[in-house]
Automatic annotation (TrEMBL):
Species in which this protein is naturally found: Azospirillum thiophilum
Name of a matching Pfam family: HupE_UreJ
InterPro entries, A to Z: HupE_UreJ
Annotated protein name in UniProt: Urease accessory protein
Residue intervals passing through the bilayer: 38-57, 64-85, 91-108, 115-132, 144-167
Keyword Membrane appears in the UniProt entry: yes
The organism's place on the tree of life at top rank: Bacteria
Signal peptide location: 1-23
Length: 181
């Protein structure tokens, strides 16, 4: 039941944020901060992965709650720097698709993994997502402002995922508090 509730909440959240997918079309125009902020929200692959990182962090609990999002954001920045520098990485799109599938499956199965191993897995996927953000940065954008935008958006999606993951405990807490009275 908790998995169904988590999946339903995640689906409802994603449906409220989803806009037409445009994360991999080669944006144009004067963008800066807002373009970077919107980039993770305009591609369902980025959106699902970043929310899944937060949900999975909450499922793992303990230090994974902060370590997974921190690892993702740190490695996202590294991947973005590679992309902005024009350094090619193999199979970026396939890796991004794999991140959606793998993290989605880990969340669905409520698979607990040691925090360090989970952070490494999340970090590898983050490099690919960051590379995508970096290579798709509009030429007119200021790299720092664009990067700050997608970092803020990513952190917000992680926080939303953590909230979704923690929300699965609410029914149990509500019923437990009624039993105490």
């Amino acid at each position: 039941m908790n998995r169904l509730l988590s999946a339903g909440l995640a689906g409802a959240f994603v449906a409220t944020l989803a806009v037409p997918a445009a994360a991999h079309t080669g944006h144009a125009g004067d963008a800066m901060f807002l373009q970077g902020l919107l980039h993770p929200l305009t591609g369902i692959d980025h959106l699902l992965t970043m929310v899944a990182v937060g949900v999975w962090a909450s499922q793992n609990g303990g230090r994974a709650l902060w370590l997974l999002p921190a690892s993702f954001i740190t490695m996202l920045c590294g991947g973005a720097a590679l992309g902005m520098a024009g350094i090619e990485l193999p199979a970026v799109e396939a890796g991004i698709a794999a991140s959606v599938a793998v993290l989605g499956l880990l969340v669905l199965l409520n698979k607990r993994v040691p925090a360090t191993a989970a952070a490494i897995l999340v970090g590898v996927f983050a490099i690919l997502h960051g590379h995508s953000h970096g290579t798709e940065m509009p030429q007119a954008a200021a790299p720092l402002l664009y990067s700050l935008g997608f970092i803020l958006s990513t952190a917000t999606l992680h926080a939303a995922g953590i909230a979704i993951g923690l929300a699965r405990h609410i029914p149990r807490l509500l019923f437990a508090s009624r039993a105490i009275r």
